[in-house]
Design goal:
This protein is mainly beta. The chain has two domains: 88 residues, Immunoglobulin-like; 74 residues, Sandwich (Immunoglobulin-like), CATH 2.60.40. It is built from one helix and 16 strands.
Length: 217
């Protein structure tokens, strides 16, 4: 070995070693996407994730469904396929991608599964609740107008009449009601919310915030 080569070795070998020590293997981030992000009922979406880092990091990804249902073709991989559930109302889905090399680094995707249009001739023309808001537990009246149904369900329980009807329901807390109409070709549904503002006033205490002199005239 000549003097020049020996000199280079003595100078650059420590620098190379220091560089290797300064760049440990580490996952630093993750990017993920869903194509498309709006999926038809029972449709599919391609999920892709890319992990970034330093050194010889693990670039693999673990997938899981947080909410909304459906299935993933493979729990691990940079590209997987999501299959949406069959839904009768538009449904939000959350899917989480986690870096295999560091479980603290993740990305959550938001997807929407769109309900299939109702079968021809089947329609929920109207579905209403009166009142839609209560200041204490009490009764509300649900009313519906439906065409083309051979069966009707309110929160999973069969109800009649099929075309036009109403039902009184007692609610003690904020609730949602789902009306589902079906026939031989399929089904459709609508959802209503009822708000119960329990606890806004203490028992025996009057709300005088809106009182004025005209109240007593």
């Amino acid at each position: 070995m000549n003097r020049f080569v020996l000199w280079k070795s003595l100078i650059f070998a420590p620098l190379l070693a220091a560089t290797l020590v300064a760049c440990p293997s580490k996952v630093t981030g993750i990017e993920a996407s869903a194509t498309p992000s709006t999926v038809a009922s029972a449709g599919t979406s391609s999920l892709t994730a890319t992990v970034s880092g330093t050194g010889s990091f693990d670039g693999n990804v673990n997938w899981s469904i947080l909410s909304g249902g459906g299935s993933i073709s493979n729990g691990t991989g940079n590209t997987v396929t999501y299959t949406a559930p069959t839904v009768t109302i538009n449904t939000g889905v959350q899917i989480k991608a986690v870096a295999t090399g560091d479980s603290s680094i993740s990305k959550t995707l938001q997807l929407t599964v769109q309900a299939a249009p109702p079968p021809p001739g089947l329609s929920i023309t109207s579905f209403t609740v009166t009142p839609s808001s209560l200041n204490a537990p009490g009764d509300v009246t649900l009313e519906w107008n439906v065409t083309g149904a051979t069966s009707l369900e309110l929160d999973g329980v069969g109800v009649t009449p099929l075309a036009k009807g109403s039902k009184k329901v007692n609610v003690s807390k904020t609730s949602s009601f789902i009306l589902k109409a079906s026939n031989a070709s399929g089904s459709t549904s609508k959802t209503l919310d009822v708000t119960v503002n329990v606890g806004s006033l203490q028992p025996g205490v009057w709300d005088t915030s809106n009182w004025n002199e005209a109240t007593w005239q």
